[in-house]
Amino acid sequence: MTEQRFVGMWVTADSHIRLELRSDGRYDEARGTRKGAYTGRYTARGNDLHFVDDSGFTATGRLVDGVLTVGPDIFRRE
C-alpha cells in the first residue's frame, strides 16, 4: 500500500500527460489519446517517488507543496 497523499490522478498543465497513481503501488500514464502508454509500479520514500515501468525504464519524482515533478514534467492533482 502507498501513502494516500500520492494516490489519485495527476495531470500536466496542458492535460497531455495524465498519471494515475493507484493505492496498490501501480501507475498508469496516458499521453494524449493513448491510454496506458506507460504502466508500472512506484514506491514512495518521504517526498520522493521511484517509478519502474513494466519495460524496465526507471524515473524519479518529487512531491513538494502539492506539485509532483517527474523528470521535466510537472503535475498537479486533478
UniProtKB/TrEMBL annotation:
<protein>
    <recommendedName>
        <fullName>Protein Atu4866</fullName>
    </recommendedName>
</protein>
<dbReference type="InterPro" id="IPR020955">
    <property type="entry name" value="Uncharacterised_Atu4866"/>
</dbReference>
<dbReference type="Pfam" id="PF11512">
    <property type="entry name" value="Atu4866"/>
</dbReference>
<dbReference type="InterPro" id="IPR038646">
    <property type="entry name" value="Atu4866-like_sf"/>
</dbReference>
